[in-house]
Amino acid sequence: MKRSAADIREDLQAHVDFLVEAGAGFVIRRSGDEAGSGAPAAAGAALPPLAARPPQTSEERAALEETDRQVRACTLCVLHKFRTNAVPGEGNPAAELMFIGEGPGRDEDAQGRPFVGRAGQLLRKIIAAMTFREDEVYIANMVKCRPPDNRVPHQEEIEACWPYLIRQIELIRPRVIVTLGRTPTDSFAPGREGMTVRRGKFGDYRGIPVMPTFHPSYLVRNEGNRELKRMVWEDMQKVMALLGRK
Ligand code: SF4
Q1: Which CATH number characterizes residue 206's domain?
Q2: How far is the CA of 84 from the centre of ligand 1 (A)?
Q3: What does the alpha-carbon distance between residue 157 and residue 240 come to, in Å, rounded to a whole number?
Q4: Which end of the chain has less Cβ packing within 10 Å, N or C?
Q5: DSSP structural state of residue 191
Q6: pLDDT tens per residue across span 55-85
């Protein structure tokens, strides 16, 4: 589909905004040398070959929509009592790149869409800076209903919701997963260390490279901290390199 000049301008602006906030001087210096080298050969080798990622069938698309319907009607865990809207996820049903966050917040619960609050706006800037359009990626969460007071979801809630997320991954078959923050990273790239140590190194989920990075809400809470933005951008450059975007 041909994109309008206004759309392209808007994407470029978001790209520049994020790069400037991330410290463009650093970003530009890195892009020619070591940035991207963090994508280990093993992670590249583990990429599912194209034969293992056949074009999505109409049945699979229908199954993804059915999963959305099941989520919206789900009462499997206590979180259904607190929701205004369940938030199944959104984006390209055959996305190469999938972002997984923790759970819906107040704005997401109100709108039934993932990552629409302040943290969501930052994530969408990051996606544009990575040269992806929002309709090229898929965004989901570990739990599909808002935990009260935005608390971290309990283990039993994560386990109750897990089959929906796994179904989404199996149907979308992304080439790379980015986990945002500790909660999804604990499930997809487990480790004892904090996020500062675990971020930036590819893990593996059933042959899909998994890149852990900080949750955008952590960046929003530490707005003046350029180092955090720089680290996230460094992580995303590795993802871009793996997907041939740089
Ligand atoms: S969080 Fe997941 S498992 Fe719990 S009620 Fe919502 S959709 Fe169902």
Answers
A1: 3.40.470.10
A2: 12
A3: 32
A4: N
A5: -
A6: 789 999 999 999 999 999 999 999 999 999 9
| Site to substitute for ligand 1 among 144, 152, 162, 165, most atoms within 8 A of C-beta | 144
> Where in the sequence is the domain holding 70, given as residue range(s)?
5-242
Whether 127 is in the pocket of ligand 1, judged by its Cβ within 6 Å, is no
Buried b (16+ CB within 10 A) or exposed e, 5-42: eeeeeebeebbeebbebbeeebbeebeeeebbebbeee
* Cα Rg of the chain (Å, integer): 17
Write the CB contacts of 41 (distance below 8 Å, at least 6 apart in sequence). Answer: none
Tell me how many domains the chain contains: 1
86 lines ligand 1 (CB under 6 A): yes
Give the pTM: 0.83
Mean pLDDT of 2-23: 61
Count of CB atoms within 10 A of residue 85's CB? 16
Tokens, residue 57 = 């069938």
Q: Note the pLDDT of residue 20.
A: 60
Nearest to 139 by CA among 181, 118, 169: 169
Per-residue model confidence as pLDDT tens digits over 30-44: 333 333 333 333 333
Tell me the CA end-to-end span of the chain in Å, nearest whole number.
23
pLDDT in tens, 168-212: 999 999 999 999 999 999 999 999 999 999 999 999 999 999 999
